[in-house]
Amino acid sequence: MADDRVKVSIVCMRCGERFVLKGSRQKGKIDTGFKRCLCDNEKEFDIDVMDS
Ligand SMILES: [Zn+2]
User: Fold this and answer.
1) How far is the CA of 37 from the centre of ligand 1 (A)?
2) How far apart are the C-alpha atoms of 25 and 46, rounded to whole Å?
3) What pLDDT, in 10s, does the model give residues 28-47?
4) Sign of torsion, CA 6 12 13 17?
5) From the CA of 1, how far away is ligand 1's center (Å)?
6) 31 C-alpha vs ligand 1 centroid, how far in Å?
7) Pairing mode, if any, of strands 18-26 and 4-12?
8) Model-level pTM?
9) CA distance 27 to 19
10) Mean pLDDT, the chain, whole residue set
11) In 10 A of CB 8, how many CB atoms?
C-alpha cells in the first residue's frame, strides 16, 4: 500500500485557529494525527488538502 504524503490545512470553526500539518492519505482517508484544537474543539474543522 502506497503511503501518500500530503499537506493538510486545518481551520478550527470555533476559534479560527489554523494548523498546517503533514498527513498521509490512505484509501481516500486523510490521517494527520491531529486530535483537537487549543479551544478543545474536536469535531468542527474545515480541512483542506494541499497537494504539492
Ligand atoms: Zn479552536
Assistant:
1) 5
2) 17
3) 888 999 999 999 999 999 99
4) negative
5) 33
6) 19
7) antiparallel
8) 0.81
9) 23
10) 91
11) 19
